[in-house]
Amino acid sequence: MTQSEFIIRNTRPEELDAYIDVLERAAEWMESQNLAQWIPGTFRQPETRQHIANAIAQQNSFIVEPVNTMNGSNNNSTSSSSSLSASSSSPSSSSPSSSSPSSSSSGTIAAIFALNYEDPFDEMLWSPLLGPDHWKDAIYVHRLVVEPSFQGKGIVPQILAFVENLVIEKGKTFLRLDCRANNPRLRKFYREKCRGKVVMISNENNNNNNSNNNGNDKDGVVQEQVLQVQGLEERGTFRNPKTGIEYARFERRIVPASSSSSSSSNA
């Protein structure tokens, strides 16, 4: 099964229990592997359940599912009319497209994730590094789970490509996510396996032989080069002062630095 055979759509309110079941299975697996990422039972607690329900109502919660192909062909990875089509593995691909008669959702959950924009948790995690305002210039990916039977099929890069398109559409600059710092396996995966693009900025001075330039780059030429990369950039760790839990932070700059009104990181 290839990336083009998955769609990404908003979670429906009636899928709340199924969505939570995926989270709970992931929490149970983490506990069995001695990974203190999530605690089983947490997502069924009333407060957390309501938080997830609110995210679904706000259309910030998503499901990835396989596509049912008809006539043996599915050249466009598209969703039903109520769905959002997943982007291709290239972040520069077009925005979510409309429905196609050649495919439909299967009803099987392959993966889930949620998006935050200005959540207090992300402010706590990122503002010490970026400052009180710059942390808002991003879309934050949370509760990302790929079901075991669908792991290794390129779903995570497809999710990140989908979010990268949203970053551009929403006028943001960064995609960010985090995980527990004591999960080296997941940290390595984010650093090495989450392919995408970054924009490298260089400032080449046309008068580099002019000793009177005195560091003035007004005659320089800013060049932007889009590079395909294999992973996200890890931006250090942060320990929650209330819980003592340490988190590793990851990001990718999506919009060219010269197009961003404020820069909070070097790509």
TrEMBL record:
It comes from the Eukaryota. GO terms for molecular function: acyltransferase activity, transferring groups other than amino-acyl groups. Residues 73-106 have a biased composition (Low complexity). Residues 67-106 are annotated as: Disordered. Transmembrane segments: none annotated. It holds the Pfam family Acetyltransf_1. Gene3D superfamilies: 3.40.630.30. PROSITE patterns: GNAT (PS51186). Residues 6-252 form the N-acetyltransferase domain. This is N-acetyltransferase domain-containing protein. It comes from Lobosporangium transversale.
